[in-house]
Each structure stands twice: as C-alpha cells, then as structure tokens.
Design brief:
The chain is built from two helices and no strands. It is mainly α. Helix 1 (14-37) packs antiparallel against helix 2. It starts with 13 loop residues before the first helix and ends in a 45-residue tail after the last helix.
C-alpha cells in the first residue's frame, strides 16, 4: 500500500543483486572445482546445486534489468487511504479492529 512517504529518488536494488550474484557464482564455481579435486563428491554436488540456483537467479535479475523501469505513480497521484475498520487479522473472517489504542499493553500483576 502506498503511504505517500516514498522517497522521490528511490532506486532499484537489481544492480546490487547482480554483483552479489556474480560474487556468489564465482565462489560456487570455485567450491565445485575445489571439492571435486579434493575427492569430496557430496560437497561438490552441493556447490553444483548452488551454482545452478545462482545461475537461474542471475538470469532473472538480468531479465528484470533489461525490462527497464516500470510505471511508478508520481507526486500528483495521492496516497491510498488506509483501510477503514478493516479486518484486524487478514484472512480471519469476521475479525474487526477495535476502537481505541491498537495494543492495550501487558496485563499488570501485583505482587503479594
């Protein structure tokens, strides 16, 4: 939900994710090769699976970068109003917000 307080200069974290993926990819390749040469097939397989996961993630990151920027509402679009008397717990039918403070606080216990 938009609150209207989004920064005007927000940037996408895709480039940072790309460089972190590249770093992880290099380590996964190194780990696969090192464990295979050391005679540890289990660890080499684990690094190989990680290598595959990182490659798929990197492909998705590159796809999103190539798609370019998407529509973002500008300053002339007002923020959405907060839900009025909506459910207190999403997914629970019939649960409504209470009037008053959102959390009454812990119960007070008196010592004897």
């Amino acid at each position: 939900m938009r609150t209207g307080s989004e920064p005007a200069t927000a940037r996408s974290p895709l480039r940072a994710r790309f460089w972190l993926s590249l770093w992880g990819l290099l380590w996964a390749i190194f780990g696969t090769a090192a464990f295979a040469l050391a005679g540890r097939p289990g660890w080499a397989a684990a690094c190989g699976v990680l290598w595959l996961v990182i490659t798929v993630d990197m492909a998705m990151i590159l796809r999103h970068i190539r798609q370019g920027p998407h529509y973002q509402p500008g300053r002339d679009v007002p923020p959405y109003p907060p839900p009025d008397n909506g459910p207190a717990y999403p997914g629970r039918p019939g649960s409504r917000r209470r009037s008053g403070p959102p959390y009454p606080g812990p119960p007070r216990r008196r010592h004897p």
